[in-house]
Write a structure and sequence with these properties.
The structure holds 2 protein chains of 2 kinds.
Chain A: H1 2-23, H2 37-64, H3 67-99, H4 107-128, H5 132-157, H6 172-213
Helix pairs in contact in A: 1-6, 2-3, 2-5, 2-6, 3-4, 3-5, 3-6, 4-5
Chain B: H1 2-22, H2 26-45, H3 54-79, H4 83-89, H5 94-124, H6 132-160, H7 165-191, H8 198-222
Helix pairs in contact in B: 1-5, 2-3, 2-5, 3-5, 3-6, 3-7, 5-6, 5-8, 6-7, 6-8, 7-8
Classes of the chains: A mainly alpha, B mainly alpha.
């Protein structure tokens, strides 16, 4: 089942790449570099999806205190950071070609960067706290605050001067290709979140197993 | 309602009394703020092409670092002699502890800003006369929002006994909408001369309301003796 899912994702990715290479026409003013857009936009939307999963799982953890919510939040945050990195890198490559510079403090670039920072900090916080339960509570509180911060970041960056295109008119083959690209990216997002979640669960269970074998590994009173 | 206010006033009074007797926080944080302005002033101010508007960005750097130190110090007081454990046993709603801590932090931060802001304005030659009230309102709203998240995260960091760098790492990215909105409003008001705009003020008020409410709601989960 798992192998079939990943094979399907790879097959869809190959078809999507083939569509970009052979099917979709080149954009008149920007040329072939515009084709990075077919990866850029679906990755940006899937980043929000991963952030939303992290937010919901964090609320779930604070309400129910079940470890699987924490594992899911952590998995989603990791995937959000990975996808946001893709958005930033593809955006910078595109910006270099379109505006002649790798980085400008335009609203959307700044927004993506702040979003990336928010979730990188989430992962750093998790790495800094040793106690499992405490880490989960702190992570959940931070993830909720970070997600609520996202619309405010979006609104505040709109006060900055913008050179980013707000809307792009696309020909029908372009729309089709863009719509198709959502499939592999979405499957990749869901698959990565699930794979990361299973890994976290396995490590949680392994830690529990160690505790069961050595319940008093830090309890020196029994030795005494 | 009166009981709630009395409890908040009692706890805030206790924090301010400790500060007035120990002089642990205010002096240290104010000097840090001035030092940051001097260092950035020496780095930027000696270059002739730096605009006076840079003062707002420099002030933000001073507020952020001074704020983080202030929040850490006020929460560290509760850790001494297990004061927090005693506070948690008191018949108080934990939201009240948050609001009292926020009030203490806010009073200290405003006192720091009252000294650091004129220093920044003076060193960078920033002319406030076109809209002094806009400047004051934007800065006060920003400091309220910053103190709201700073108070919550200082409680989190203090309960994990982690190094102070973590608090800065948590608070800085969350506070970025405040930095972006207030610096953009300052540019619009003092450079372009067309006022701060309702959107900018709306963002600051929304930030304050959202994070005051959420921090108050989640505070009981993060507080541990």
């Amino acid at each position: 089942m798992k192998a079939a899912y990943w094979l399907m994702t790879i097959a869809l990715t190959l078809i999507a790449v083939a569509m970009v290479a052979f099917y979709v026409p080149e954009e008149a003013s920007m040329g072939p570099i515009q084709k990075i857009f077919y990866l850029h936009l679906p990755a940006a939307i899937c980043t929000f999806l991963a952030c939303l999963v992290c937010f919901v799982a964090s609320i779930g953890y604070l309400m129910q205190r079940r470890v699987f919510w924490d594992d899911l939040a952590s998995a989603a945050a990791r995937v959000a950071v990975q996808l946001c990195s893709v958005v930033l890198i593809t955006g910078m490559i595109w910006g270099r070609s379109a505006w002649g510079q790798w980085w400008t403090w335009s609203p959307r670039l700044t927004f993506s960067l702040v979003l990336w920072l928010l979730y990188v900090v989430y992962l750093m916080i998790r790495m800094s706290v040793e106690s499992g339960q405490r880490r989960a509570v702190i992570g959940a509180v931070y993830a909720i605050i970070a997600f609520l911060d996202v619309p405010l970041v979006y609104l505040s960056v709109r006060l900055m001067p913008d050179i980013h295109p707000s809307s792009i008119s696309l020909a029908t083959p372009m729309k089709l290709t863009l719509a198709f690209w959502f499939l592999p990216i979405l499957m990749l997002t869901v698959g990565l979140i699930f794979a990361r979640y299973q890994l976290s669960q396995a490590s949680t269970q392994a830690a529990r197993g160690v505790d069961a074998v050595m319940p008093s590994k830090f309890d020196f009173s029994e030795v005494a | 309602m009166t009981r709630t206010f009395r409890q908040i006033a009692l706890l805030t009074g206790k924090d301010l009394r400790i500060e007035s007797r120990s002089h642990q926080t205010l002096g240290l944080v104010t000097v840090l703020g001035i030092l940051i302005i001097v260092v950035l002033g020496l780095g930027l101010g000696s270059q002739n092409n730096v605009a006076a508007f840079s003062a707002t960005a420099v002030l933000w750097v001073a507020y952020l670092f001074s704020g983080v130190l202030c929040f850490e110090k006020t929460m560290a007081v509760e850790r001494n002699d297990a004061v927090l454990a005693a506070l948690l046993m008191a018949p108080l709603d934990r939201g009240i502890i948050y609001l009292a801590k926020l009030a203490s932090n806010l009073i200290l931060m405003l006192a720091v800003a009252a000294v650091v802001t004129p220093v920044g304005i003076l060193f960078f030659g920033f002319d406030l006369t076109p809209a002094p009230f806009v400047f004051a309102i934007v800065m006060i709203l920003s400091i309220v929002g910053f103190a709201a998240v700073g108070t919550l995260f200082s409680a989190i960091v203090s309960s994990t006994k982690l190094a102070g760098g973590l608090l800065a790492m948590m608070v800085f990215p969350i506070a970025l909408p405040l930095v972006i909105a207030s610096t953009q409003m300052m540019l619009a008001t003092f450079r372009d001369g067309h006022g701060p705009g309702a959107t900018g003020i709306g963002i600051l008020i929304a930030f304050d309301v959202i994070f005051l409410t959420v921090s108050w709601l989640v505070f009981e989960w993060v507080l541990e003796p």
